Amino acid sequence: MPVTRQSTRPVLWRRVVTAAAAVALTGAYLLAVDTAPALATPPGIPSKSTAQSQLNTLTVRAEGSLTGYSRDLFPHWITISGICNTRETVLKRDGASVVTDSSSAAVSGRWYSPYDGATWTAASDVDIDHVVPLAESWRSGANGWTTSRRQSFANDLTHPQLIAVTDNVNQAKGDQDPSTWQPPLSSYRCTYSKMWITVKYTWGLTLQSSEKSALQSMLNSCSS
After folding, report:
1. What integer is the mean pLDDT of 145-149?
2. What is the pTM assigned to this prediction?
Protein backbone atom coordinates (compact mmCIF):
# COMPACT_ATOMS: atom_id res chain seq x y z
CA MET A 1 0.00 0.00 0.00
CA PRO A 2 1.46 3.43 -0.91
CA VAL A 3 2.75 5.54 1.97
CA THR A 4 0.54 8.47 1.01
CA ARG A 5 -2.58 6.33 1.53
CA GLN A 6 -1.39 5.11 4.93
CA SER A 7 -0.66 8.66 6.08
CA THR A 8 -4.25 9.78 5.52
CA ARG A 9 -5.60 7.26 8.02
CA PRO A 10 -6.19 8.36 11.60
CA VAL A 11 -3.36 7.51 13.97
CA LEU A 12 -5.74 5.54 16.16
CA TRP A 13 -6.78 3.33 13.25
CA ARG A 14 -3.15 2.60 12.38
CA ARG A 15 -2.53 1.59 15.97
CA VAL A 16 -5.52 -0.75 15.91
CA VAL A 17 -4.37 -2.33 12.66
CA THR A 18 -0.82 -2.69 13.99
CA ALA A 19 -2.02 -4.25 17.24
CA ALA A 20 -4.33 -6.63 15.39
CA ALA A 21 -1.50 -7.70 13.12
CA ALA A 22 0.73 -8.32 16.11
CA VAL A 23 -1.91 -10.45 17.78
CA ALA A 24 -2.47 -12.37 14.57
CA LEU A 25 1.24 -13.03 14.17
CA THR A 26 1.59 -14.04 17.80
CA GLY A 27 -1.42 -16.31 17.54
CA ALA A 28 -0.01 -17.94 14.43
CA TYR A 29 3.31 -18.49 16.20
CA LEU A 30 1.70 -20.02 19.25
CA LEU A 31 -0.42 -22.26 17.06
CA ALA A 32 2.67 -23.46 15.26
CA VAL A 33 4.39 -24.23 18.55
CA ASP A 34 1.36 -25.90 20.11
CA THR A 35 0.77 -28.16 17.13
CA ALA A 36 4.36 -29.29 16.78
CA PRO A 37 4.28 -33.10 16.70
CA ALA A 38 5.29 -35.08 19.75
CA LEU A 39 8.03 -37.51 18.86
CA ALA A 40 7.18 -40.74 20.71
CA THR A 41 10.38 -42.19 19.33
CA PRO A 42 12.27 -44.52 21.66
CA PRO A 43 16.04 -44.82 21.19
CA GLY A 44 17.79 -47.67 19.45
CA ILE A 45 15.34 -48.50 16.67
CA PRO A 46 17.46 -50.43 14.13
CA SER A 47 17.48 -50.27 10.35
CA LYS A 48 15.55 -52.87 8.38
CA SER A 49 18.74 -54.76 7.51
CA THR A 50 19.92 -54.83 11.12
CA ALA A 51 16.51 -55.97 12.35
CA GLN A 52 16.49 -58.69 9.69
CA SER A 53 19.89 -59.94 10.82
CA GLN A 54 18.72 -59.95 14.42
CA LEU A 55 15.50 -61.79 13.55
CA ASN A 56 17.48 -64.44 11.70
CA THR A 57 19.55 -65.20 14.80
CA LEU A 58 16.71 -65.35 17.34
CA THR A 59 15.95 -68.78 18.74
CA VAL A 60 12.57 -70.17 17.75
CA ARG A 61 11.04 -72.16 20.59
CA ALA A 62 7.58 -73.13 21.78
CA GLU A 63 6.19 -70.48 24.09
CA GLY A 64 6.62 -71.15 27.80
CA SER A 65 3.92 -71.01 30.45
CA LEU A 66 2.96 -68.20 32.80
CA THR A 67 3.38 -70.39 35.85
CA GLY A 68 4.90 -68.31 38.65
CA TYR A 69 4.53 -65.03 36.75
CA SER A 70 3.77 -61.77 38.56
CA ARG A 71 4.30 -58.17 37.51
CA ASP A 72 5.82 -57.66 40.96
CA LEU A 73 8.77 -59.74 39.74
CA PHE A 74 9.53 -56.88 37.30
CA PRO A 75 9.84 -53.87 39.67
CA HIS A 76 8.68 -50.67 37.96
CA TRP A 77 8.42 -47.77 37.78
CA ILE A 78 11.78 -47.00 39.43
CA THR A 79 13.40 -43.63 40.15
CA ILE A 80 15.44 -42.47 37.17
CA SER A 81 16.57 -38.96 38.06
CA GLY A 82 15.90 -36.92 41.19
CA ILE A 83 12.27 -37.70 42.02
CA CYS A 84 11.23 -38.64 38.47
CA ASN A 85 10.39 -42.28 37.79
CA THR A 86 10.43 -44.22 34.53
CA ARG A 87 6.88 -43.34 33.51
CA GLU A 88 7.43 -39.64 34.07
CA THR A 89 10.71 -39.79 32.16
CA VAL A 90 9.07 -41.40 29.11
CA LEU A 91 6.15 -38.96 29.21
CA LYS A 92 8.61 -36.07 29.02
CA ARG A 93 10.68 -37.78 26.33
CA ASP A 94 7.76 -38.68 24.06
CA GLY A 95 5.58 -35.62 24.64
CA ALA A 96 5.62 -32.02 23.45
CA SER A 97 5.39 -28.92 25.66
CA VAL A 98 5.24 -31.14 28.75
CA VAL A 99 4.87 -29.28 32.05
CA THR A 100 5.45 -31.09 35.33
CA ASP A 101 4.61 -30.24 38.93
CA SER A 102 6.88 -30.30 41.97
CA SER A 103 6.53 -34.08 42.22
CA SER A 104 7.63 -34.55 38.56
CA ALA A 105 4.14 -35.58 37.43
CA ALA A 106 3.03 -34.27 34.03
CA VAL A 107 0.23 -31.73 34.45
CA SER A 108 -0.02 -30.67 30.82
CA GLY A 109 1.45 -31.45 27.44
CA ARG A 110 0.63 -33.24 24.23
CA TRP A 111 1.25 -36.87 23.35
CA TYR A 112 0.93 -38.48 19.93
CA SER A 113 0.32 -42.23 20.03
CA PRO A 114 1.96 -43.86 16.98
CA TYR A 115 0.01 -47.07 17.56
CA ASP A 116 -3.31 -45.47 16.57
CA GLY A 117 -2.51 -41.91 15.46
CA ALA A 118 -4.38 -40.26 18.35
CA THR A 119 -3.15 -37.15 20.15
CA TRP A 120 -3.82 -36.56 23.86
CA THR A 121 -3.41 -33.55 26.13
CA ALA A 122 -3.99 -35.34 29.45
CA ALA A 123 -1.29 -37.67 30.79
CA SER A 124 -4.03 -39.83 32.29
CA ASP A 125 -5.01 -40.85 28.73
CA VAL A 126 -1.52 -42.16 28.06
CA ASP A 127 0.07 -45.46 29.08
CA ILE A 128 3.74 -46.36 28.89
CA ASP A 129 3.76 -49.57 26.90
CA HIS A 130 6.35 -52.28 27.30
CA VAL A 131 6.82 -53.07 23.60
CA VAL A 132 7.65 -56.65 24.55
CA PRO A 133 5.16 -57.18 27.39
CA LEU A 134 6.43 -58.38 30.74
CA ALA A 135 4.33 -61.55 30.59
CA GLU A 136 5.58 -62.23 27.06
CA SER A 137 9.17 -61.89 28.23
CA TRP A 138 8.44 -64.34 31.05
CA ARG A 139 7.22 -66.91 28.53
CA SER A 140 10.29 -66.22 26.39
CA GLY A 141 13.05 -66.69 28.95
CA ALA A 142 12.71 -63.98 31.61
CA ASN A 143 11.34 -66.58 34.04
CA GLY A 144 14.95 -67.63 34.55
CA TRP A 145 16.29 -64.14 35.17
CA THR A 146 17.19 -62.52 38.47
CA THR A 147 14.82 -59.87 39.82
CA SER A 148 17.53 -57.29 39.15
CA ARG A 149 17.67 -58.19 35.46
CA ARG A 150 13.88 -58.16 35.21
CA GLN A 151 13.85 -54.70 36.79
CA SER A 152 16.34 -53.46 34.20
CA PHE A 153 14.18 -54.90 31.42
CA ALA A 154 10.98 -53.33 32.76
CA ASN A 155 12.62 -49.89 32.95
CA ASP A 156 14.80 -50.04 29.84
CA LEU A 157 15.30 -46.53 28.48
CA THR A 158 18.30 -47.43 26.31
CA HIS A 159 16.46 -49.65 23.82
CA PRO A 160 13.04 -49.25 22.13
CA GLN A 161 11.18 -51.08 24.87
CA LEU A 162 9.12 -48.22 26.35
CA ILE A 163 6.78 -45.87 24.47
CA ALA A 164 3.91 -43.52 25.34
CA VAL A 165 0.67 -44.62 23.67
CA THR A 166 -3.12 -44.37 24.04
CA ASP A 167 -4.11 -46.15 27.24
CA ASN A 168 -6.99 -48.27 25.90
CA VAL A 169 -4.93 -49.34 22.88
CA ASN A 170 -2.20 -50.52 25.22
CA GLN A 171 -4.78 -52.33 27.32
CA ALA A 172 -6.22 -54.01 24.23
CA LYS A 173 -2.72 -55.22 23.35
CA GLY A 174 -2.25 -56.75 26.79
CA ASP A 175 0.50 -59.39 26.70
CA GLN A 176 -0.03 -60.42 23.08
CA ASP A 177 2.79 -60.90 20.60
CA PRO A 178 2.67 -59.75 16.94
CA SER A 179 1.02 -62.98 15.78
CA THR A 180 -2.21 -61.88 17.49
CA TRP A 181 -1.81 -58.10 17.92
CA GLN A 182 -0.29 -55.36 15.79
CA PRO A 183 -0.67 -51.56 15.99
CA PRO A 184 -4.04 -50.44 14.54
CA LEU A 185 -2.16 -47.85 12.47
CA SER A 186 -0.74 -50.11 9.76
CA SER A 187 1.89 -47.57 8.72
CA TYR A 188 3.59 -48.02 12.11
CA ARG A 189 3.88 -51.80 11.91
CA CYS A 190 7.26 -51.67 10.22
CA THR A 191 8.70 -49.63 13.10
CA TYR A 192 6.91 -51.79 15.67
CA SER A 193 8.45 -54.96 14.23
CA LYS A 194 11.95 -53.46 14.34
CA MET A 195 11.42 -52.39 17.95
CA TRP A 196 10.12 -55.81 18.99
CA ILE A 197 12.91 -57.69 17.22
CA THR A 198 15.76 -55.65 18.65
CA VAL A 199 14.37 -55.83 22.20
CA LYS A 200 14.13 -59.62 22.02
CA TYR A 201 17.58 -59.81 20.46
CA THR A 202 19.19 -57.46 23.01
CA TRP A 203 17.69 -59.29 25.96
CA GLY A 204 18.27 -62.81 24.62
CA LEU A 205 14.60 -63.77 24.50
CA THR A 206 13.17 -66.50 22.29
CA LEU A 207 10.19 -66.32 19.95
CA GLN A 208 7.63 -68.77 18.67
CA SER A 209 7.18 -69.72 15.02
CA SER A 210 3.93 -67.77 14.46
CA GLU A 211 5.49 -64.71 16.10
CA LYS A 212 8.50 -64.87 13.79
CA SER A 213 6.26 -65.17 10.72
CA ALA A 214 4.25 -62.11 11.78
CA LEU A 215 7.41 -60.11 12.44
CA GLN A 216 8.82 -61.07 9.05
CA SER A 217 5.65 -59.94 7.29
CA MET A 218 5.75 -56.58 9.07
CA LEU A 219 9.45 -56.19 8.41
CA ASN A 220 8.89 -56.84 4.71
CA SER A 221 6.74 -53.70 4.63
CA CYS A 222 9.71 -51.54 5.62
CA SER A 223 11.45 -49.45 3.00
CA SER A 224 14.60 -49.15 5.09
Report:
1. 98
2. 0.83
